[in-house]
Amino acid sequence: MSSKTTIDIPEALLEDFNTYSTHEIMDICMFNDIKDIEIDIGDVEGLRYFKARNLLKNPLGLRDFLQKFPAENKEKSALEGHSFSGSKSPGLQQPIERAFMGFMGYQIFNLCKQYSFLKYKEKSVSWKYYTNYYYNGMRSWNKNYLPHVDPFSYASNIFLTDSSEHGTSFFKYVDPVTEKSYYSMGDVMSSTQDIRDRYTKGLSDWYGYEVSDPDHPANKQGTGVMQCTNGDAPWVHYTGDDFYTRYHFLPSDFNSMSMYRGNRWHSATFNAQNSKTGRYSLVGCIL
Ligand SMILES: [Fe+2]
Question: Average pLDDT of 33-62?
Answer without folding.
Answer: 97
